[in-house]
Amino acid sequence: MTDAPRVRVNQVGYLTDGPKTATLVTDATAPVRWRLHQGGTVVAEGESQPRGHDPSAGLDVHVVSFDEVRATGHGFVLEADGAMSDPFALAQDLYDDLRVDSLVVFYGQRSGIAIDEALLGPGYGRAAGHVDVVPNRGDGAVRCLPAVHATTADGVDLYDGWTGGYTLDATGGWYDAGDQGKYVVNGGIAVAQLLGLYERALRTGTAGALGDGSLRVPERGNGVPDVLDEVRWELEWMLRMRVPAGEPFAGLVHHKVSDERWVPLPMLPTDDPQPRYLHRPSTAATLNLAAVAAQGARLFAPHDEAFAALLRTAARDAYDAAQEHPVLLAPDTNVLANAGSGPYDDADIEDDRLWAATELYLTTGDDRYADDLRANRYAPLFRPEGFDWNHVAAWSRLQLATVASALPERDTVRASVVEAADALRAQQATQPFGHPYVPTSGRYDWGSNGLLLNNLAVLAAAHEITGDQAYRDAVLSGVDYLFGRNALGVSYVTGYGTRDVRNQHSRWYAHQLDPTLPHPPRGTVSGGPNSDCPDPVSAALAGSPAQCCFVDDIGAYGVNEMTINWNSALAWVASYLSTGNS
């Protein structure tokens, strides 16, 4: 990655009618000349703007802007200070393929179904995982985690003696990331964003681009929009995760299903020999189901009213169950010596309650849920660090602001989104790499790329609310960072750009370890720089400038994992930026 050119550009390119900005690494204190080339022709030229030292990158930089260029084509190169950029395109349809590819990544994460290489791509086919075929213990009848497995080495019982004598059919759903676990809270935000991008397309009259036959999924041709088919695979699994009637915590949703112990890399899902267990139900998982079932109900209704009715009932029931058990938390199971899954612990679930009330209100219009929205004083709704699976208040607010409803306070809600977007634009203006991700601590969080993408969703919502192109321009400038305009000069999305990452942490997309296995599919986003550098590979980078805390290595799970929630954020933004949708 150190061989990246000093002129850092969006390696995919720039929309013809959007902002066009690059970052030049140089210690020059005065402006320098730049030239934009295509072939042997100089298309434009000008002077750079010195920006001094960027502490997040550890580099001295200038900014080069060529917004006025309206030429189209491929093979453009920016020259400045004796350096040449990677080539890039100028066009209006740059993100159309990414909209499709980022969504098809979810098909590759499916559990319980054979993956067809004719759909995902040559070399990507594999047998169904966790379907009770040896050596799998399978997900057809998963036991509750025995109490002894929830006791730490020093005798702390994380689940307060909980276990259950029942089993659940936990087949289906998406593998969360590069491991074999399936987690309701991470599935929840991913489902919400995929449903959300389709709902936004309905509002903008561009849903045809996401209709039946638009994605490479097995269900294409069934008359249902393909993105809804993909989402249904996860929704049906979430419905299976409910505690049966007559059991303690009946109606709540199990937090996750996972292996007893971590399996090594590489490991295909079909080869996983570990016992599988249901972890204790949680209020957060239950509220996640309530939220996405309510959202799904209104979107599936035109296509499958029976399924929509099932979702509406499930959403109400889950909300009621969460009222009955308002603070049943998922603990940090990383303290267990035999942990085989991410903890996804979350001690603050009032934002989840706000989100569930929001979606139930938007679907039903019932005063009960509007009253609960008003009574919920969760703050802050928006954070400069962005939102994610464990901070969903901002997503709730975006939904309440953009989905039509009779809420009397809707204008106030919409104004709050615009205010949050203005704050992000002000932060973005301070960043010579153009990205609206400025954590208050100065340190980048785990999954910083996903957090950045979700900040872009706030800006996009402000564009939808106001019609002001300045917010769209802010989204475009922020996307540049993901595709190469960053301290390392890499594109964080596989298959996009000259220097794209290809070794995301995954047990089956593990080409780095086994050349017979593929790299992650085209359109897979890496988690990105993480100042904590928490894994053995990235640990050597600890103390580096925030943007430099990254390495494209399969063992670097703390900076370079793939996950469904980061890809859902990418898919949402790609859909927004695709032709005719922004």
Automatic annotation (TrEMBL):
Domain called Glycoside hydrolase family: residue spans: 95-573
Keyword Hydrolase assigned: yes
Stretch list, region Disordered: 512-532
Enzyme class per UniProt: hydrolase
Keyword Zinc-finger on entry: no
Cellulase Ig-like domain span: 4-83
Residues of the active site: D552, E561
Keyword terms, alphabetized: Carbohydrate metabolism, Cellulose degradation, Glycosidase, Hydrolase, Polysaccharide degradation
GO molecular function: cellulase activity
EC number: 3.2.1.4
The organism's place on the tree of life at top rank: Bacteria
Similarity comment: Belongs to the glycosyl hydrolase 9 (cellulase E) family.
Record's protein name: Endoglucanase
Species assigned in the record: Cellulomonas humilata
